[in-house]
Amino acid sequence: MSEFAFGSGSLVTVATCTLNQWALDFDGNVERSLKSCQMAKEAGASFRLGPELELSGYGCEDHFFEQDTFAHCWESLVELLEKGASDDLVCDFGMPVMYHGVRYNCRVVCYNRQILFVRPKTALADNGNYRESRYFTAYRNTSNTNEELLLPNFVQERLKQRTCPFGLAYLQSNDSVSIGCESCEELWTPNATHIDLALRGVEIIGNGSGSHHELRKLDQRLELMVSATRKCGGVYLYSNQRGCDGGRLYFDGGAIIVCNGKVLAQAPQFSVSDVEVITATVDLDDVRSYRASIPSFGIQAAQVNSQSELANDSCIDCPSLKLQHESLDRAVVTTPKEGLTISSPEEECCLGPACWLWDYLRRSGAAGYLLPLSGGADSSSVCAIVSAMCHLVVEAAPKDPQVAADVRRICRQSDDWLPSTPQELGTNVLHTIFMGTENSSEKTTSRAKRLGEAVGSYHLSVPIDLMVDAVIKVFSRATDRRPQFQVNGGSMAEDLALQNIQARLRMVTAYLFAQLVPWTRNRTGFLLVLGSANVDEGLRGYMTKYDCSSADLNPIGAISKGDLKRMLLWASERYGMPVLSEIAGAPPTAELRPQAKGSDEDAEHSQLDEEEMGMSYEELGWFGRLRKISRCGPVSMYRKLLVTWNHLSPSQVAEKVKRFFFYYGINRHKMCTLTPSYHAEGYSPDDNRFDLRQFLYNSKWPRQFRVIDEMVQRQEAAAKDKKEE
């Protein structure tokens, strides 16, 4: 009798996954989803969770307005079920669903080729890069009962099922296992869905998510999931997309399984693999015991179940469904991990963009990248990121057939070829070009060459003085005037024009070489041009419009100079490239003006970025975070920095703030032509999707600056009076 009553515990094996889905790639998305279901079954799982909107891809954006997108998703779901994805496996898929003419972001739970229920999302993400309420409606059910969704005609015919429940339901199996759904943003809300589900007795909660990478964000995500189950008990599964699904965002995977505040399994944050599945075997008696040990949990659970906001039929009873292991099955319960795997910011700066670049390269059909390499920190950071991509691919290719197939196709190699070293892959996919002028120093020329050798790139040194002189001669013949640099007696207007023509000719030259270098190497295809302007320069506008910041992609466009320098030091040690450490220690310089008279030829260039900008990169980081993350205008920023920068006088702080906003205002128009950049930082000035503001400002900021000046006068007068007392 005791064996029947106790068996070997209430053991359930659950699986969650990280999928590299691609917006509108319906066939590819089905293939990857199906593979994850097969891997979950092979691991003995009875429940599999997938990412948010996995069948369409999360980043479809305005394609969600198209009826085709919804129809193709239903086709994909039917295909998955007919291929046996849900045979003896409860599958939680993410897809858009239209109900009564309203678009919803939904979880679709299936088992044995039937749709058990459709659960719409109740809280939509609309901050930062997210625009979910543009495409979907947050679900509200005033009747507190499950509704019926009439399935499309072809779905009815293929699945022999006419309707399914639609609403805030959860699943109850015949062996007393309950499964509920939470979707991405709902975890982050004050009244999170998992709280009500836990109080209702739901033991397993799955969160299908579409969460993009941002520096230092993963620990926040993990903290929410760990604290959710520490407070409420239960098993919490998190599934996320991975990779570039067609836009500026990189979805950073990191699937996780947590039980009672302890992490049982965690998938890598950065990887070039398309499909990764993690599993854990849990004893649900541990969940029940954990909850029963918290008196306050019992009180609130009793209140919820006696005064239920949801009707009893919110529970979908499945008499034929059994999720627990058989009583004689001696499955091993998964033990908690010793510690969480959280990448350092330097690692995130390097590996996130590296994975994003790999996805873009293999999905664009390009034959590689071309990088204008100046020998400075920014372009060298991009070079290091591409090298990191090569390391990841070379490591994964022998174990992952998809990675192997992609690398052979990109490199135009035979079916039995694989790169043996990152440098061998670098020679095939990375082309670097140093475009020097008479203003370039020997130091940067040498650094660019040595870095190209270290990463294995196909490196060219191309002087462009002939092109610069030709353009100036065209201007001189038309106007009978020849512009001069300031050091040679010219005006500031002449000086800037001469600097800008060098920068813009580099952009033109880069695109010429991107088209023709494969031809010169007797190869087919085209190269994508990489840009290298960092987030601080974009914010300040310290860049030439349509120079080498204009490219096909920019992997560092939302990363600060400080983070990039720290990343260079990390990569120098990680990949054994001392030249990166040397570059990180060199002063940033554009090298567009002649060296100061009397300068040593072997010295660093005398034109220094921070002197020209009138502010340091560290100060730019403060301005950027306060402007965007803290939502400060000029006056609010002055007030905050007055406290933070207490080593400066009020007038000095005011001068710095006003200088920043002046240059921000006159240069904001440059953000309208910003190269598509990897989104990594919360204060990115990307005008296209993230930082939505005007591009024509009154750069004098008359009201704002007047208020600041009045505050300075009052504060300095008060300080003077206090000193005299």
Q: Which ranges are low-confidence, i.e. pLDDT below 50, for 5 or more consecutive residues?
A: 1-5
User: How far from one another are the termini?
Assistant: 90 Å
**SS field, number of helical segments:** 25
How much helix, percentage-wise, in residues?
A: 40-55%
What does the main sheet amount to? 14 strands, mixed
For the residues shown, what is the average pLDDT? 89
The proportion of strand residues reads: 15-25%
Structural class estimated from helices and strands: alpha/beta
Topology, number of strands: 20
- How many whole angstroms does the radius of gyration measure? 29 Å
Shape: globular
In words, what does this structure look like?
The longest helix has 29 residues, at 492-520. The protein contains 25 helices and 20 strands. The model is unreliable at 1-5 (pLDDT under 50). The chain is of the alpha/beta class and 725 residues long. Helix 2 links the parallel strand 1 and strand 2 (47-49). The strands form 3 sheets. Strands 1, 2, 3, 4, 5, 8, 9, 10, 11, 12, 13, 14, 15 and 16 form a 14-stranded mixed β-sheet that branches. It has a 4-stranded parallel β-sheet with strand order 19-18-17-20, with helices on both faces. The protein has a two-stranded antiparallel sheet with strand order 6-7. It is globular, with a radius of gyration of 29 Å. Helices cover 43% and strands 16% of the residues.
